[in-house]
TrEMBL record:
Keywords: GTPase activation, Metal-binding, Repeat, Zinc, Zinc-finger
Organism: Junco hyemalis (Dark-eyed junco)
Protein name in the entry: RAS p21 protein activator 2
Renumbered residue ranges of the record's region Disordered: 770-792
Residues annotated as domain Ras-GAP: 327-521
PROSITE patterns for this protein: C2, PH_DOMAIN, RAS_GTPASE_ACTIV_1, RAS_GTPASE_ACTIV_2, ZF_BTK
UniProt cross-references to Pfam families, sorted A to Z: BTK, C2, PH, RasGAP
Lineage per the UniProt record: Eukaryota, Metazoa, Chordata, Craniata, Vertebrata
GO molecular function: GTPase activator activity; phospholipid binding; zinc ion binding
Residue ranges of coiled coil: none
UniProt-listed GO biological process terms: intracellular signal transduction; negative regulation of Ras protein signal transduction
């Protein structure tokens, strides 16, 4: 099939990044312990650490994750932590998915809104509606409304569990309210109802002597179908889950079938006060990319990849991207990944660093600003340096965070009974330990980082030939200030710790950097910098260690049987390395069960109906499948991706699998009775095999296309500026629209701009074709939702 003939090849990928800063004026108006969660609809996917005894807690936690499913609302909940009772939800900020673009990349204070059952509505319902004409026994014509309620999707969890939903279907008018009810479906957020209800829309009048039999029609303009979803409470009150309303007049004589997003009740929150719960400061960046087949990006990809060969570098497509983006970070994230994926990053960083050095007048300020060069190196270190940081710093950071010794030496912050001399000894002990781990870690430094540092070192020495120390400061400004220092102060940024630590910050780092300046340590630092900025190959001693890929707590289904014959789920600590997949009773305990990576045959999602549990997946190996439940959809997606990636090259990978479990003597998916029956569904497509660097080149190119599209007006301004400079070569007397742009060669820059604009116009056409096809194949009903999150 020709490219573009089918939208099946288009991937819609979403991600979310940002920062939870702080909250203020929270209720109740007294010192409490608070934490904040991020929820997709009502599924928690991220949680901050608890900030103790505060009225205005500062969380300061960054977040980034892929969103593996559709959602309606992004919500942030503030909780009051309780020791003995259930944590209390103070308030929330909820933003409709379609409105997220209004807040992207901006720091905003949001007013907290109250949390009640009406404001927690989520999910959608699939309906088919039809008007039929019937002839009654007495010969009159009667219209009949047929309502087929097929299914619902994405209903909320109730007290952390799947709900027991049922629906009421009503025909409502000025003089009638006919209601019918479906059966209750047990323990599911995606109930399949498949029930049909019939309503008479017109009623016959009584026979009179003055006229023949007549039909008195109701005013169809005023009739509507209403579907309400409820959770069956058994012995307690049923909980409202949402409603939809469809005017009968839209049906006419046609059959109408669509998905409808569930809505809150119209009068649900009108009486609630929203101005006294406090507010939350957030920075949110949501992106949704429609990634076309790879061949569509050939021209843009090639133009970007040859950027390092363009003279001057400021006339290259990659550099122009950074110039037109309001925030350089938006450009750097996809650009570094793309260049890294195609082995073009080192020459590009060298070229932009050389441009940086031209404007650097003093050696002691080298690479200290937030330029394109420094941001590219920062992002590169985050991507390729994760494992390096784990093997170097994680053990000592774990020790500091889990068994903290008092290190406060500020007299103002000392608590009663604190001994400043003991605290200083503790601080020095930690600093020495971190320092020793770093300076002897050069053999673990990734080759790509060494290549970049080598280029920076020699460029700096060339720029300041009379300064013997500049070759070291050029590298140390990155490896210490922007890499190790950030990891020590904010270990959660590099996934060394789950949350931002509160044990140390400014005091620790101040003492930490003093260490590097002491004469007795100078030679150790220089030797380390020589090693990490050398191009000579490093021969590791002994057998190479397995790469640590992922770890965390999940639930697994017991492989054996309990006394009563039922298999249960137990909480376990899971660990994935490049060598094996293990689970443990607790973190840091010996493994209970080990699967060598080479023995894994497939990793796939498991249908929810297998055990009535969400976010489940299965690891197929030589024995029975290992069934695992993750804590949320993001976590499940990350585990499946990591496991698939590390097992992609296994020779015995399966082509088919069973999407449901084998229970009570048969597979739930295909009803086969033999447990050894071959799978009934084809395994999902392979993923990239690189276990350390996760890069989707087409997606990064799509992101860059989107950035060029968003900043099209700046591209045109830059194009006009190049034209003006080419025509008028005289001095500029006043600042102009393009004074902030770097234009070294107007002709070369103009030529590149023309290529960029031509390419994005062609990609525009391809995206428009896809969007038309997408809108024609997806039929939705009402999607109106009230705005819940407000910006103060």
């Amino acid at each position: 099939m020709a490219a573009g003939d089918s939208s099946d090849e288009v991937r819609v990928l979403q991600n979310l990044r940002g920062k939870i800063y702080d909250a203020k004026h929270l209720v109740p108006n007294k010192m409490r312990d608070f934490f904040c969660t991020i929820n997709l609809d009502q599924e928690e996917v991220f949680r901050t650490q608890v900030v103790e005894k505060s009225l205005s807690p500062y969380f300061g936690e960054e977040f980034y994750f892929e969103i593996p499913r559709t959602f309606q609302w992004l919500s942030f909940y503030i909780y009051d932590k309780s020791v003995l009772q259930k944590d209390l939800r103070i308030g929330k900020v909820s933003i409709k998915k379609e409105d997220l673009c209004n807040y992207t990349g901006k720091e905003n204070w949001f007013m907290l809104q109250p949390v009640d059952s009406n404001s927690e509505v989520q999910g959608k319902v699939h309906l088919e509606l039809k008007l039929n004409e019937l002839i009654t026994d007495n010969g009159s014509v009667c219209q009949q409304l047929v309502v087929h309620i097929k299914e619902c999707h994405g209903l909320p969890l109730i007290n952390g569990q799947n709900c027991d939903p049922y629906a009421t279907v009503s025909l409502v008018g000025p003089s009638r309210n006919d209601q019918k009810k479906t059966k209750v479906k047990k323990k599911t957020s995606n109930p399949q109802f498949n029930e049909t209800f019939y309503f008479e829309v017109t009623r016959s009048s009584s026979y009179t002597k003055k006229s023949q039999f007549q039909v008195e029609e109701e005013d169809i303009e005023k009739l509507e179908v209403r579907v309400d979803l409820w959770n069956n409470g058994n012995l307690v009150q049923d909980i409202f889950l949402g409603e939809i309303k469809v005017p009968v007049k839209v049906l006419r004589n046609d059959s109408f079938q669509a998905w409808y997003l569930l809505q809150p009740r119209e009068n649900g929150n009108k009486s609630s006060k929203t101005d006294d719960l406090g507010s939350l400061r957030l920075n949110i960046c949501y992106t949704e990319d429609c990634v076309l087949p790879s061949e569509y990006y050939t021209s843009l990809r090639n133009l970007l990849l040859k950027s390092s060969d363009v003279q001057p570098i400021s006339a290259s497509a990659a550099y122009i991207l950074s110039e037109v983006c309001r925030d350089k970070c938006d450009a750097v994230l996809p650009l570094v990944r793309l260049l890294l994926h195609h082995h073009k990053l080192v020459p590009f960083v060298a070229a932009v660093a050389e441009l940086d050095l031209r404007d650097t007048q003093e050696a002691n300020t080298i690479f200290r600003g937030n330029s394109l060069a420094t941001r590219c190196v920062d992002e590169m270190m985050k991507i390729v340096g994760k494992h390096y940081l784990k093997v170097t710093l994680k053990p000592v950071i774990d020790e500091i965070c889990e068994s903290p010794k008092p290190c406060e030496i500020d007299p103002i912050k000392l608590r009663e009974g604190d001994n400043v001399e003991i605290n200083m000894e503790n601080l020095r002990y930690y600093v020495d330990k971190v320092f020793r781990e770093i300076v002897r870690s050069s053999i673990s430094c990734p080759t790509l980082m060494c290549d970049v540092f080598y280029s920076l070192r020699h460029l700096a020495a060339k720029r300041f030939p009379n300064d013997p120390h500049v070759q070291y400061s050029a590298v140390s400004s990155f490896v210490f200030l922007r890499f190790f220092a950030v990891a020590v102060v904010s270990p959660h940024t590099f996934h060394l710790r789950p949350h931002h630590p509160s044990s140390f910050k400014e005091t620790f780092m101040c003492e930490f950097f003093k260490t590097f300046q002491e004469e007795q340590f100078t030679e150790s630092v220089k030797k380390f910098l020589d090693d990490v900025s050398s191009t000579e190959s490093k021969e590791p001693s002994g057998v190479s260690e397995p790469v640590h890929l992922k770890e965390g707590e999940m639930y697994k289904r017991a492989q054996g049987r309990t006394r009563i014959g039922k298999k249960n789920f137990k909480k376990r600590w899971f660990c994935l390395t490049s060598r094996e997949f293990t689970y443990h009773k607790q973190q840091d305990k010996e493994p209970i069960f080990t699967i060598p990576i080479k023995n894994i045959l497939a990793v796939e999602k498991l249908d929810e109906n297998s055990f009535n549990k969400k976010n489940m997946f299965q690891v197929l190996h030589g024995e029975k499948p290992l069934y695992i439940q993750a804590n949320n959809c993001v976590e499940a997606s990350e585990w499946i991706e990591a496991l698939c990636r590390v097992t992609r090259c296994n020779q015995r990978r399966l082509s088919f699998y069973h999407p449901s479990a084998f229970l009570n003597g048969s597979w739930l998916c295909c009803k086969a009775t033999a447990e050894s029956t071959e799978g009934c569904a084809r395994c999902t497509a392979d993923v990239p095999a690189d276990t350390q660097i996760e890069i989707d080149g087409d997606r990064e190119t799509e992101r860059i296309y989107s950035l060029f599209t968003i900043n099209r007006s700046k591209l045109q301004k830059l194009e006009e500026a190049c034209g003006s400079i080419a025509v008028y070569q005289g001095p500029r007397k006043e600042p102009d629209d393009y004074s902030n742009f770097t234009i070294e060669d107007s002709v070369a820059t103009f030529h590149t701009l023309q290529q960029i604009i031509d390419i994005i116009e062609k990609l525009d056409e391809s995206h428009e074709k896809y969007q038309k096809k997408r809108s024609s194949s997806a039929k939705y009903g009402s999607e109106e939702n009230p705005i819940v999150g407000k910006v103060s």
